[in-house]
Amino acid sequence: MYFLLKSLYLYSVSLWVGSLFFFTVIGAPLAFKILPKEEAGKYTGAVFPKYFLLGYILGTIALVSFYLLTKGSLTPIGWLNLLLLLVANLLNFINGLVIVPKASLLKADFYRTSNKELYNKFLKLHGISMALNGIVLLICLMVVGLTALYLTF
After folding, report:
1. Half-sphere exposure of residue 114: CA atoms within 13 angstroms, side-chain side
2. Residue 132's domain spans which residues?
3. What's the pLDDT tens digit per position in 35-65?
4. How many domains is the chain built from?
5. How many CA atoms lie within 13 A of 140 on its CB side?
6. Distance of CA 32 to the CA centre of its chain
7. How many other C-beta atoms can be found within 10 angstroms of the C-beta atom of residue 120?
8. pTM of the entire structure?
9. Residue 94: CB atoms within 10 Å
10. Of the candidates 42, 48, 62, which has an alpha carbon nearest to the alpha carbon of residue 20?
11. In sequence order, which residues have a C-beta less than 8 Å from that of residue 138 and are 6 or more positions away?
12. Which is the most buried residue in 33, 100, 109, 132, by most CB within 10 A?
């Protein structure tokens, strides 16, 4: 059971960070460079719900497997790692279940009405979403660092 939990933890953190990095640094920006703005928006609108779902699954597996690996023997570094995983998951859920759906509705309303105020609200939420995504990426990179440098299970 120990090796299964350790594998689940390491694979889930690795895959989560990899997907965060790829879509944040390469996937989404590249779509807006090679596709017309509206088409790139459709593409990211189709990809990001799946991206967040993957994050929910991998983040939850990482959090639960890390907790099960370390329960009863958490060091200060272990507590920090657990807290970082919890915060990353919380921010990812807020972003994917609250911010992005609101932004998508505003964008759809803008295309329907051409109301510039709706577009400005969309841009504000989109900026918040990008910032949250960047914070989650940074937190997850910290988790990888802590895992690699300090944690032994």
Report:
1. 0
2. 2-149
3. 998 899 889 889 989 999 999 999 999 999 9
4. 1
5. 30
6. 20
7. 11
8. 0.91
9. 15
10. 48
11. none
12. 100
